[in-house]
Amino acid sequence: MYAVLHPSNFFAQAAAHQRPELRKSPFVVLDGEPPSEMVFAANNAARSQGVEIGMTRIQAEAFSEVVALRRVIEHEHTAHATLHHIACMFSPRIESVEERPGTYALDIRGMDLLYGNAVELANKLRRSVMTAGFLANIAVAENFHAAISLACGRAGVSVVPSGGEAHAIGQLPVTALELAPEHEATFAVWGIRTCAELAALAETDLIARLGQAGKRLHSLACGTWPHLMFPIDRASKPVERMELDFPVEELERLLFLLSRMTTELLERVRGKALAIAALRVVLRLDGGAEHERTVRPALPLQDTATLLKLLQLDLETHPPTAGVVGLELHAQSAAPYRAQHGLFLPQAPEPGNQCSVRG
């Protein structure tokens, strides 16, 4: 059983996540080098006014109410990390759907003991995504590809009963199957508009005309195409990024920002029952240079205060040479240290929670 999380219009949502005041205003995201920027993404409010993907900056600026934003890759990385963290809370086995930005497929077998039945889990997953500031469609089905098609083609929550994949995706447009341009043109000539119409064709006739691609498309339309899941490595390296409007030179202010980022990383790591074995700090300095430092506690930690103290001591010894305009915090996760105490020994702090500082 798979649950697929799909944030529609991901790139626009990633931009709005950093500028929440623009959520209800028409805006576009521009990509490219000036003065030849093109509209890379647009929210629904901008599209309703006539903005289209691929317009030039000059064309987009003709719409007086539309706000133009520059594409920031770091904002997309942050959005991916947030959605990835939420997906990991609901399943230990998740896969990133590369052809659908921001989309994750979760193997939810056995998760009913924690989150209830498929309907309850899907609704809880969607509420968690919305709490994080994103709007996503959730689809649950026994077939991996059917769940993806439903999540990308239907708004809200869709739960398919066992064996009902063909009926569920039947009314979706055939383009929901991610057709190659030549196949899309062929089906348009044949008058095939929905997945149900494609599934009604004889598989042997499709293979005769389209080759093995015809077999795959027919199975996708029937909701029976198999999939071998490639879960994301559990011991992943979560990252937090932050862009600053003005250079920060005081170490105290820098540590305040690093504290927030460390807390976010620890929450994500703890959600996988892991700890932090190393922290790599990359400071982008005013002028273009980078200052990189790495701290490695003696044992994997789940304690923010200790990690922050290690960062403080290292940065006091090796301070940046200019104001900081951007921060990246990379964590290397590992299994937490567990000490086995004797039954009759007095209680003592875990070794990983001891931190001595010498002046």
TrEMBL record:
Keywords: DNA damage. It comes from the Bacteria. Gene3D superfamilies: 3.30.70.270, 3.40.1170.60. One of its GO terms (biological process) is DNA repair. InterPro entries: DNA/RNA_pol_sf (IPR043502), Rev_trsase/Diguanyl_cyclase (IPR043128), SulA_CellDiv_inhibitor (IPR050356), UmuC (IPR001126). Residues 2-115 form the UmuC domain. Belongs to the DNA polymerase type-Y family. This is Protein ImuB. It comes from Tunturiibacter empetritectus.
